[in-house]
């Protein structure tokens, strides 16, 4: 087992550090920005159906559901196709509306999650075209779907999903860019800019991983906290949910993720000098709004840990701790901004003596309903 961990103390840490490579593997043979090449070989026969879809429904559970939320923003933004993201367990039990030509996409690391599988079977029986975004080759979901795209992220052993999440985002971004380019809902120059940017993501993640030591220090400061709040807006809202889930799963600290603007409708009541609030506050279209949200938390004496873009100057004056990540396009930011949150949950869990790779009560793949 020590050999399999490749010198890391836990599989989770190994998998976090593997991400520059797992994302490069995910894009290998699919993306070549200088040639303007972007292909997803696994989606071939249904490529037109996907491009012309009137509606896309995404079904997933857990971290994969968070990847689906990011996909909703990207597909609606670039492809102008309405997207609904459903918990598979809710979708399947509520007589969902599926119309001819609807596309249902399942996102699953294991390809074996019982609820996701059952949701797909239901959608298939109602005439939907079902596609899979799956890591485990030959898994049940990959077998029942009409077509799909594998993650090629390699086996993920840690129960808390890390490299599968970023590979899911990578595949979903490639899928959205393919659709948008075919449909003409994105300009040629924006398309090329995003291809180039996507190709640079492994290097940017590598850089984001440099914050590891700084995060250890922050973790030591907050390891005994009883609650955490994670806030973000736009593309970074699902990242806030994912950061909170990672912390709950492995450190057993209660954590909530919220859209930053919704804070006023509840979570703000929880804020006092004891409450750590993690903001994902990178430079994007909602940046100014997030800065005001940070001020609102500071006015109530909350402790702010902010994930910011390199070169940030304003938030440094307000937040208690700032963690810098490299700049990228707004739509690709979750790939980078999630990295410090994975590390934060990891180090806090280790410092609390938790079994990081096999947290209590959780399973890597939930094959019961
Ligand atoms: C379990 C795992 C999570 C995972 C979820 C969905 O809860 O512990 O890490 O996100 O199942 O799994 P899937 O394999 O369908 O992505």
Automatic annotation (TrEMBL):
Kindly state which keywords UniProt assigns to this record, in alphabetical order.
Answer: Aminotransferase, Cytoplasm, Glutamine amidotransferase, Repeat, Transferase
Residue stretches making up the SIS domain: 46-185, 218-359
EC number, as in UniProt: 2.6.1.16
- What is a GO molecular function of this protein? glutamine-fructose-6-phosphate transaminase (isomerizing) activity
Cite the active-site annotation: 364
Catalytic activity annotation: D-fructose 6-phosphate + L-glutamine = D-glucosamine 6-phosphate + L-glutamate
Enzyme class label: transferase
Quaternary structure note: Homodimer.
Purpose? Catalyzes the first step in hexosamine metabolism, converting fructose-6P into glucosamine-6P using glutamine as a nitrogen source.
Write down what this protein is called. Answer: Glutamine--fructose-6-phosphate aminotransferase [isomerizing]
Q: Which gene encodes it?
A: glmS
């Amino acid at each position: 087992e020590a050999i399999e961990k490749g010198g890391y103390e836990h599989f989770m840490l190994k998998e976090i550090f593997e991400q520059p490579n797992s994302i490069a593997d995910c894009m290998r043979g699919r993306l070549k920005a200088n040639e303007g090449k972007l292909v997803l070989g696994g989606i071939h026969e249904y490529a037109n159906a996907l491009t012309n879809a009137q509606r896309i429904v995404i079904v997933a559970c857990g971290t994969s559901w968070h990847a689906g939320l990011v996909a909703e923003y990207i597909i609606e933004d670039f492809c102008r196709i309405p997207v609904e993201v459903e918990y598979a367990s809710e979708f399947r039990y509520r007589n969902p509306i599926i119309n001819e030509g609807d596309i249902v996409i399942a996102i699953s690391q294991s390809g074996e999650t019982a609820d996701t599988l059952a949701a797909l079977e239901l959608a298939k029986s109602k005439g939907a075209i079902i596609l899979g975004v799956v890591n485990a080759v030959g898994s049940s979901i990959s077998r029942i779907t009409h077509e799909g795209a594998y993650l090629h992220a390699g086996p993920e052993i840690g129960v808390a999903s890390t490299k599968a999440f970023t590979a899911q985002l990578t595949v979903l971004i490639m899928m959205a860019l393919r659709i948008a380019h075919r449909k003409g809902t994105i300009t040629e120059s924006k398309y090329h800019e995003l291809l180039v940017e996507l190709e640079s993501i492994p290097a940017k993640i590598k850089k984001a991983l440099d914050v590891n030591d700084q995060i250890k220090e922050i973790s030591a400061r907050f390891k005994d906290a009883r609650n955490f709040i994670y806030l973000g807006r736009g593309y970074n809202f699902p990242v806030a949910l994912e950061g909170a889930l990672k912390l709950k799963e492995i450190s057993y600290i209660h954590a909530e993720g919220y859209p930053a603007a919704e804070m006023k409708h509840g979570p703000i009541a929880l804020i006092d000098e004891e409450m750590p609030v993690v903001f994902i506050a990178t430079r994007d279209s909602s940046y100014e709004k997030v800065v005001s949200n940070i001020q609102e938390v500071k006015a109530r004496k909350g402790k702010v840990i902010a994930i910011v873009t390199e070169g940030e100057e304003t938030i440094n004056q307000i937040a208690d701790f700032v963690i810098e990540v490299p700049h990228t396009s707004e739509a690709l930011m979750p790939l980078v901004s999630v990295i410090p949150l994975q590390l934060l949950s990891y180090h806090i869990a280790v410092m609390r003596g938790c079994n990081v790779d096999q947290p209590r009560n959780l399973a890597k793949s939930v094959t019961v309903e």
